[in-house]
């Protein structure tokens, strides 16, 4: 038996390739599916099965794309009326060489969520590992709020049953392979671990130490954020996205082409780091640093107008288009040829953003003209914050601009200054003149030994 984990950066997604005796299966494939084909060819295997542990919300699934190439069958839970694939139920088994995958219905995150219990019969009849989707993660369990507040209690009860009465009944040595790692929006505090086990989670996972009443209360009051792009992903993964067959060609654009697209509503995202963006950027452009693009573009970019990327030297174009395609952005169009240096060398107008160190912020703290905006998650802000700061999560800033005064100097901070740079770009795009990115933000503030307010 072989097992390979395929990670998708930014969204912290994990998919899995399982193979035995020339036959293979893929669990929760991503849309740019060439990597699974490469693994199959390298190991002389044929992909016959594709499994979806649930209808994913944070990325566009690659099941149809992979089926188009390899001709495999697609399987998912029966609790949702998918427009493609086949339904499975509790106890269904699939033979993959010497490996057997058995379906366990584990609703709670979604109604149709399933887990896949694996036995390697070449070695033993004992269960070896379980693919848990978004039900159990390392240090966390899946969110139960996706169907709205009125359904959260019902879903939390289903989650409790799936976790405590099914998955935790497995032997302690069974390896847990979830669909996400640390940083995913599908859980609040997922640990950074390659894999975990049933026994280890029993000992270390805070959610699994709770009584049923405590668990339900915990889930009912859990504060999580839901990016607007989730709705597009849910639609894509229910009816099936359009086939791309190959990664799109991004057009190299000149200055005049870029200006014309912008005049018609084109979305320009500058993927350089905060310091570079602050030093100079094209007016009315959104800044999301390269590695943050998968996590934050879904909050701000729409699926209609063309998306144009601005970078320093365009060495990251291959990664960037994969990030966007995984989120269903088929409207990704092109990039500024030659990068931002071409813009200012071509006499293009540009703007700057003020920057402060934490040492600059400290002596300005008492000024009535200063408004300190912290764009971290509310839970993080409540745990520790700078006295007098105001919290609006970065993903919700655009819809809450009425809470940010236009007649004050707005100093924006986050964990290190990267999300703050998104914030300064949003403010600048919406007419705010006096904005500053506090570089290093809370990390540097605490490193300097400056005071924080703690919950």
TrEMBL record:
Single Gene Ontology BP annotation: hydrogen sulfide metabolic process
Coiled coil: none
InterPro entries: Metallo-B-lactamas, Mito_Persulfide_Diox, POD-like_MBL-fold, Rhodanese-like_dom, Rhodanese-like_dom_sf, RibonucZ/Hydroxyglut_hydro
Keyword Metal-binding: yes
Name used for this protein in its record: Beta-lactamase domain protein
Superkingdom field: Archaea
Keywords in alphabetical order: Metal-binding
Annotated Rhodanese domain residues: 262-352, 366-454
């Amino acid at each position: 038996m072989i097992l390979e984990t395929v990670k998708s950066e930014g969204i912290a997604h994990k998919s899995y390739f399982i193979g035995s005796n020339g036959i293979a299966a893929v669990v929760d494939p991503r849309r740019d599916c060439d990597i699974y084909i490469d693994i199959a060819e390298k190991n002389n295997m044929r992909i016959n099965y594709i499994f979806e542990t649930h209808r994913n919300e944070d990325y566009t699934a690659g099941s149809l794309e992979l089926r188009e190439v390899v001709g495999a069958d697609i399987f998912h839970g029966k609790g949702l009326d998918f427009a493609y694939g086949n339904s499975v139920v509790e106890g269904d088994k699939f033979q993959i060489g010497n490996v057997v995958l058995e379906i366990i219905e584990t609703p709670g995150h979604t109604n149709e969520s399933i887990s896949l219990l694996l036995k390697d019969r070449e070695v033993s009849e004992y269960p070896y590992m379980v693919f848990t989707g978004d039900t159990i993660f390392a240090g966390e369990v899946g969110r139960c709020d996706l169907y709205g507040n009125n359904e959260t209690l019902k879903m939390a009860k289903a989650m409790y049953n799936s976790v405590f009465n099914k998955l935790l009944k497995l032997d302690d040595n069974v390896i847990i392979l979830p669909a996400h790692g640390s940083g995913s929006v599908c859980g609040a505090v997922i640990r950074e671990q390659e894999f975990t086990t049933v026994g280890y989670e029993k000992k270390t996972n805070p959610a699994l130490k709770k009584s049923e009443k405590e668990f339900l209360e915990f889930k009912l009051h859990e504060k999580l954020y839901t990016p607007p792009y989730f709705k597009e992903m849910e639609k894509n993964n229910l009816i099936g996205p359009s086939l791309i067959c190959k990664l799109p060609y991004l057009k190299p654009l000149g200055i005049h082409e870029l200006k014309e697209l912008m005049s018609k509503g084109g979305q320009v995202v500058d993927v350089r780091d905060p310091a570079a963006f602050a030093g100079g950027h094209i007016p009315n452009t959104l800044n999301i640093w390269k590695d943050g693009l998968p996590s934050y573009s879904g909050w701000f970019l729409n699926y209609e107008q063309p998306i144009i990327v601005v970078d320093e030297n365009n060495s990251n174009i291959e990664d960037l288009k994969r990030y966007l395609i995984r989120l269903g952005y088929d409207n990704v169009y092109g990039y500024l040829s030659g990068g931002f240096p071409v813009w200012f060398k071509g006499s293009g107008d540009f703007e700057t953003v003020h920057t402060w160190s934490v040492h600059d912020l400290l002596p300005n703290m008492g000024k009535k003209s200063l408004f300190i905006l912290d764009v971290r998650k509310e839970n993080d802000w409540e745990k520790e914050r700078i006295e007098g700061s105001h919290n609006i999560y970065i993903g919700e800033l655009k819809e809450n601009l009425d809470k940010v005064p236009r007649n004050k100097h707005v100093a924006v901070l986050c964990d290190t200054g990267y999300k703050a740079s998104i914030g300064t770009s949003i403010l600048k795009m919406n007419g705010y003149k006096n904005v500053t990115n506090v570089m290093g933000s809370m990390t540097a503030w605490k490193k300097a030994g400056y005071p924080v307010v703690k919950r």
